[in-house]
Amino acid sequence: MTQDWHQRTGCELGAAIGRGEIDPAALVDHFLARIESQDPGHEIYVRATPDRARVEAAAARDRAQAGARRSALDGVPISWKDLYDSAGVATEMGSPLLKGRVPDRDAEVLARATNAGLVCLGKTNTVQFALGGIGTNGYTGTPANGAARDVPRAPGGSSSGAAVSTAVGLAVAGIGSDTGGSVRIPAAWNGLVGLKTSFGALPTAGVLPLAPTLDTVGPLTRCVADAALLFAIMAACKPADLAGATLEGCVFLACETLVWDQGDDAVASAVRAAIDRISNAGARIDWAPVPEFAEIDAVLNSNGAGVVAEGYVTWKDLIDNHPDRIDTPVIDRFHQGRDMSASALETVNKAGRELSAALHGRMAPYTAILAPTVPIVPPPIAEVTASLEDYRAANGKALRNTRLGNVLPCCALTLPCPDGPMPAGLMMMALPGHDQALLRAGAAVEAALA
User: Would you say the pTM of this structure is higher than 0.85?
Assistant: First the structure.
């Protein structure tokens, strides 16, 4: 029955394609019809690519019939954030200042995915210049949260469309980017798995930059296994072995420092319940302070964030010449970067280097650090767009926990917590370069939370 295809994981659909039970061409038509009917305002997909999708799906069908599939996800349709170059299709980073920018080749990770047989459904919405954790965009519109449906709530940013497209069944998975939390925040707020990859683990060639020293590519998915396969395809490496993943022998550091502060009780309760489930499934949990988190947070709050300084330098000409065409919350943060002194920036960078070494030493005995991905529930869109001060307050809380793994380099995974009235994410942070080990541990945690 085709009506549940959009509720299945990529692994499930890929396996069904391999068994001849699903025609990739019919599968992509199913998703394109849903996009047309459920996203008439183009707030989730700023531009769908039906012609490309149908050509790629037809090729996947031919390969399946010939027994020549290129990967376990050959024929599976996914979405791409509007900062991944795609040949002949506008890539505008959610900004009117890049309107009409049409690249002549695919981003490297998109090319790798296409070579593995994945089908490109189109380009999804993002915060302008990918700078913001709430997910609003006054130019392209703001997609409503796909998991919390009581009132229109923030989708999380900046990979807002990537998350919502996956959460509401308009894609099997979405490819986003994470510079300060832009994969993990929308994943957590939409009840998804989100992988923040180690810096440099996936190529960023052909990906419009915000802060090149922090930008990372990452998938938003329905399950850890899909994230593992997408990571391997984009990294051009062998997938992590998730078979038999167990919590036996896993030791987690449950962070007591900073990450719970000024949060919502609903989130804290859901995350603590998730940690209890992990403990009951056989893992050892050590509750302990992580002073490096509080120290870097204080440095950032006192001096400013390097991401906005680097972002301002990256897009300086457009920012200075057309500030009136950039969303107020975005230009506000760019101007914070413009006004950051050289001494303040060096203070931040020096603290990052020193505290990273200390944090990595603290992490070494542990499978991962556990924390709430985002300490607050997704706020109503009307609240965060009411005033700049309201936006600043919510954005600061949304980014506070996730940015720790960017400034103090880590790989990280967010998993949906099953206990709670609102979507909440459990974040697992591991040493940089340990993405595959983190995914295996994440698969075991996912099973414990199921």
Answer: yes
Q: Say whether both 221 and 259 belong to one domain.
A: no
Task: Give dist(CA 366, CA 430) in Å, integer.
Answer: 8
In this predicted structure, what is the pLDDT of residue 2?
Answer: 56
Is 158 catalytic? The answer is yes
Is 99 labeled as catalytic in the residue annotation? no
At 348, which CATH number?
3.90.1300.10
Please give the mean pLDDT across all residues of the chain.
98
Question: Which of 235, 265, 299 is the last residue before a domain boundary?
Answer: 235
Task: Clarify whether residues 374 and 320 are in a common domain.
Answer: yes
Count of H helices and E strands in the chain? 17, 11
Count Cβ neighbours within 10 Å for each residue of 323-352 and write b for 16 or more, e otherwise.
eeebbebbbbbbeebbebeeebbebbbebb
Q: Is 29 a member of any domain?
A: yes
Is 68's pLDDT higher than 90?
yes
Rg of the chain (C-alpha set)? 20
Residue 1 has pLDDT above 80, yes or no: no
Please check whether residue 244 lies inside any domain of the structure: no
Model pLDDT, residue 338 = 98
Residue type, 217: V
Among the options 81, 123, 196, 397, which is catalytic? Answer: 81
Nearest 5°: the CA angle 390, 133, 366 is 125
Q: Residue 9 and residue 394: Cα distance in Å, rounded?
A: 32
Expressed as residue numbers, the domain containing 208 is 2-235
Q: Are residues 337 and 420 in the same domain?
A: yes
CA–CA separation, 39 and 260 (whole Å): 36
- Both tokens of residue 190? 């939409």
Catalytic member of 182, 196, 198, 397: 182
Percent of the chain with pLDDT over 90: 99
- For 350-381, the pLDDT digits (tens) are 999 999 999 999 999 999 999 999 999 999 99
- Catalytic (active site) residue 81: yes
| Cβ-contact 401, 376 below 8 angstroms | no
- Whether residue 245 is contained in a domain is answered as no
pLDDT in tens, 112-151: 999 999 999 999 999 999 999 999 999 999 999 999 999 9
Tokens representing 347?
A: 């203070």
Q: Are residues 173 and 36 in the same domain?
A: yes
From 86, 158, 159, 198, the catalytic residue: 158
Residues 6+ away with beta carbon under 8 Å from 76: 10, 13, 14, 17, 24, 27, 117, 118, 119, 172, 173
Structural domain includes residue 14: yes
Q: Are residues 271 and 226 in the same domain?
A: no
Q: Strand, helix or coil at 284?
A: strand
